[in-house]
Amino acid sequence: MKNISRWQFSDSLVRQNQLVIDGWTVISFSYDQVKEEPRRCQQIVQQVIGRWLGNELDQTSLSLIEKEVLRLAIRMGKAISPIEVEKYLKLSDKTVKKVLSQLVVKKMLIPASGIMRVRSYRLADQVKHPI
Description:
The protein is mostly helical. The chain folds into two domains: 30-59; 63-131, Winged helix-like DNA-binding domain superfamily/Winged helix DNA-binding domain (Arc Repressor Mutant, subunit A, Orthogonal Bundle). 59% of the residues lie in helices and 7% in strands. The chain is built from six helices and two strands. The protein has a two-stranded antiparallel ribbon. Helix 5 (82-89) crosses helix 6. The chain starts with 5 loop residues before the first helix and ends in an 8-residue tail after the last strand. 11% of the residues are buried. The mean pLDDT is 85.
């Protein structure tokens, strides 16, 4: 945003404020920061994601495995299957089914496909995700 007017700058701030009001997390970088210090920018993004995940998931009474399942679902940005969870966490199918059922009871996951046998799960609306 080289040589922008005061009005353009003001408009940019209003748009950023509106995103924050709408629940978005906004972090800003200049072109020079991204070009000259990409690793530092990456670390800042990782810190924001880490803080968000930590705050959102630690406020509830979730086990470490349950938190990791939710993190996987957030990262994938789509419905997850028990097989994907098994492979990712290297757990037995029995353990994964138990954890997924517990997350459904806690209203953190919702069955996404299947009625008698659930084949995939999606994040519940109460679980915010940045993606």
